[in-house]
Write a structure and sequence with these properties.
Strand order of the largest sheet: 1-2
Oligomer: single chain
Structural class: mainly alpha
Number of helices: 6
Largest sheet: 2 strands, antiparallel
Distance between the termini: 57 Å
Helix content: 55-70%
Strand content: under 5%
Radius of gyration: 25 Å
Length: 142
């Protein structure tokens, strides 16, 4: 398939596909007789996996490390598993932080929806913020 079709089917732009190819995240495509890139449909599975890694916050340098290990073959399975296990722990920690934040948001929203006293109590417990007069700031802070 040509790069335009791959872009359409993968959700990546042609520019991103070329970039990923250039940095080593995607293998170089075969070329057809007119020298246009010609991708095998199996690349879509790899691109979908890369999208999951990106969605979960894996940095490109780690994605590149994983891709390089993958390229070296089955002898690197233990290293790839370790890399993914470490990333999974970071994802779980981030998911826990997001869950805790959602609970706070849900409680705040519920307070606005009907349990107004709970919201008033929470808001009253927050320290008051006072604006300092312009003259109170140190000269270097401007």
């Amino acid at each position: 398939m040509k790069i335009g079709e791959l872009a359409k089917r993968s959700g990546l732009s042609a520019h991103t596909i070329r970039y990923y190819e250039r940095i080593g995240l995607l293998p170089y495509a075969d070329r057809d007789p007119s020298s246009q890139r010609d991708y095998d449909a199996s690349i879509l599975v790899w691109i979908a996996f890369l999208a999951r890694l990106k969605t979960t916050g894996m940095p490109i340098r780690e994605m590149l490390r994983y891709a390089a290990l993958r390229e070296r073959g089955v002898d690197t399975q233990a290293e790839r598993r370790e890399l993914l296990e470490q990333h999974r722990e970071r994802v779980r920690a981030h998911a826990a932080e997001l869950t805790a934040s959602l609970l706070v948001l849900d409680a705040k929203i519920a307070g606005y929806s009907g349990a107004k006293q709970g919201t008033k109590d929470h808001d009253a417990a927050l320290p008051e913020r006072r604006r300092k007069s312009a003259g109170a700031r140190p000269a270097g802070a401007r």
